[in-house]
Design goal:
The structure is a homotrimer of 133-residue chains. Chain A is α/β, with parallel strands linked by helices. In chain A, 29% of the residues lie in helices and 26% in strands. The first copy, chain A, has helices at residues 15-33, 80-98, and strands at residues 3-9, 41-47, 52-54, 68-75, 105-112, 117-118. The longest helix of chain A has 19 residues, at 15-33. The relative contact order of chain A is 0.22. Chains in contact: A-B, A-C, B-C. Chains A and B meet through α1, β2 and β6 of A and β3, β4, α2 and β5 of B. β3 (52-54) of chain A pairs antiparallel with β2 (41-47) of chain C, so a sheet runs across the interface. Chains A, B, C: InterPro entries: Tauto_MSAD, Tautomerase/MIF_sf.
Chain lengths: 133, 133, 133
């Protein structure tokens, strides 16, 4: 249940590219964390150029007008190694999918306990037992 | 101060339905957690069909093109019973309000300490005393 | 790396005002927390009048149709004093920048550990050492 919201510049990526972005985010969980492919819950939000601001060089990056902010609601139980794996994999796969620079992808992993997710029917399906994902 | 952001498919729900969705989310706090009706802070975001992806069957659901993701900034002090109550009530009331399937509502409860909210004037009004909501 | 998402009423603020809002949010970190000016990662989202709901009077405010919800992904290590400083500074500077009422600014500070941010290249740049920001 990591849930993505990718905030991208408006009118920059085609519909096909946005679908490829969603596939890349899904695959980052599969390849980076061994999560089932069906666990695919993704939002993309477009922002006009007066609505999305990423400093062009902060922390030694060379950001372009492709730059985006990706938030991930990630299981709060994830250790540092998992966080590194998912950030690295998101970056690599989104770069491949969209042809953007690795410097253009800002990621924030927001910790949320697994027991706080409802996949439907109003139930908190992961409230019982050890975390699976 | 639970704050909602409902991410829904674009051009799927009428303006009247979006207002009914907001009312349902507000009532989920009133009925599910005994929160005052005035505590009503709600965002709705529309996403095109190339911007919102929920797997059609993951975790045993039958999701349709009505499927939505609702995030809730919820007091971090809430015990499991409150989480279950609010998820169940959101689902029931949104199903009633929009006529969608119970399987179409994905919910993520993001824990935020009460002391982290400002209702206006730049003050953190809930920083003192025991949590009320 | 506090990251902002300002949810504002659609067609209410000009492009120039939205840029001034972003500047005010950036300056709230500089002036309120001593964070470097280059740490500027900001999203603005517009919502139609059937998509953004803030109760007009809850908690003793007089909210208008300018009312907005600002979320901030803030370092989870921040003590209460820092939270108060940033909320106060956001409110003051946004009021100055947009000419809105202090009552019209709702803020939620969402705690995120510093180690959970990637500024680019898929690395978690703040994972090592004591929190700087």
């Amino acid at each position: 249940m990591p849930v993505f919201n990718a905030h991208v510049p408006a009118n920059r990526f085609s519909s096909q590219q946005k679908r490829a972005l969603a596939d890349a985010l899904n695959q980052s969980l599969v390849q980076g964390l061994g999560i089932p492919e069906g666990d695919r819950f993704i939002m993309i939000s477009e922002h006009g150029e007066d609505e999305l601001f990423l400093d062009p060089t902060f922390m030694g990056m060379q950001r372009s007008s492709d730059a985006m902010i990706i938030t991930v609601l990630l299981g709060a139980h994830r250790p540092m190694g998992d966080k590194r794996a998912v950030a690295e994999t998101i970056n690599r796969l989104v770069v491949e999918a969209l042809g953007v620079s690795p410097d253009d992808i800002f990621i924030a992993l927001i910790p949320v306990p697994n027991e706080n997710f409802s996949f439907g029917k109003g139930e908190l399906q992961l409230a019982e037992g050890a975390p699976r994902w």
